[in-house]
């Protein structure tokens, strides 16, 4: 390998070490309580300015961590959709929403930190937008969701759809946290493995979408209710 190749390999190794350390520390302690200096030390970098040098701002660092996971999830999702073919029911779509996430989590091994990192970022309004920008799973799912709703749930009001999208996302995020934590701690908790979590989430999200609407849909100022 040439001198330039050696330098590039070292840079990539340094960047990977920083991303790994930051993901773990953010997952354990939260994004805003962890300093760049702590990340540099955890990554084995003598230069405590290494994080800023390689990634810029903390938001840029969060975006880089999210990006390497969402890209992998998107690749799995492409395969899962090809295997599924045409949707025949709401559960088909729910499975294609859940499986790419749980398959990626399983591939990370134990311990992993992405689910808990994702949960920490999701409670921060600014960083949540970063995750949504990077989340190909969310953006690419919209067309399939519209198709499923038009075919199987044509009378579901727009406001109910918006709320249930949020509910489904929170279910996936939080159950991945619980499974990741249980596996990392060696907990004997029932059904907290990635295969069973995928099945349980698919069942729950299917039931969520197919649940009746029992409360009246309220009209917000400036907007129409219903679908």
State the main characteristics.
single chain, about 230 residues, mainly alpha, 10 helices, about 75% helix, elongated, disordered C terminus
Structural summary, described in words:
The chain is mostly helical and 227 residues long. It has helices at residues 3-29, 36-42, 50-55, 58-84, 90-108, 114-122, 125-134, 136-152, 158-185, 194-210. Helix 1 packs across helix 6 and helix 4 (58-84) crosses helix 5 (90-108). The protein is elongated.
* Helical percentage: over 70%
Largest sheet: none
Shape field: elongated
Task: Find the count of extended strands (DSSP E, 2+ residues).
Answer: 0
Q: How many H/I helical runs?
A: 10
Strand percentage lies at under 5%
Order of helices and strands: HHHHHHHHHH
Distance between the termini: 62 Å
Give the overall pLDDT as a whole number.
88
Contiguous low-pLDDT stretches (5 residues minimum) are 223-227
Estimated radius of gyration? 20 Å
Oligomeric state of the chains in view: single chain
* Broad structural category: mainly alpha
């Amino acid at each position: 390998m040439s001198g330039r190749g050696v330098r590039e390999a070292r840079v990539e190794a340094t960047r990977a070490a920083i991303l790994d350390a930051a993901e773990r520390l953010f997952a354990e302690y939260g994004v805003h309580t962890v300093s760049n200096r702590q990340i540099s030390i955890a990554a084995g970098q003598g230069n405590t300015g290494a994080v800023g040098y390689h990634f810029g701002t903390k938001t840029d660092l969060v975006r880089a961590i999210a990006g390497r996971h969402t890209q992998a999830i998107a690749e799995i999702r492409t395969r899962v959709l090809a295997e599924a073919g045409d949707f025949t029911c709401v559960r088909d779509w729910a499975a294609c929403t859940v499986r790419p996430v749980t398959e990626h989590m399983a591939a990370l091994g134990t311990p992993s930190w992405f689910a808990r990192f994702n949960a920490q970022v999701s409670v921060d309004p600014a960083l949540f937008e970063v995750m949504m920008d990077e989340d190909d799973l969310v953006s690419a799912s919209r067309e399939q969701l519209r198709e499923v709703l038009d075919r199987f749930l044509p009378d579901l009001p727009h406001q109910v759809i918006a709320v249930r999208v949020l509910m489904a996302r929170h279910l996936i995020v939080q159950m991945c946290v619980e499974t990741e934590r249980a596996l990392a701690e060696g907990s004997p908790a029932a059904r907290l493995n990635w295969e069973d979590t995928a099945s349980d989430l698919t069942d729950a999200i299917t039931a969520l979408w197919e649940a009746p609407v029992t409360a009246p849909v309220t009209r917000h100022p400036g907007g129409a209710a219903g679908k």
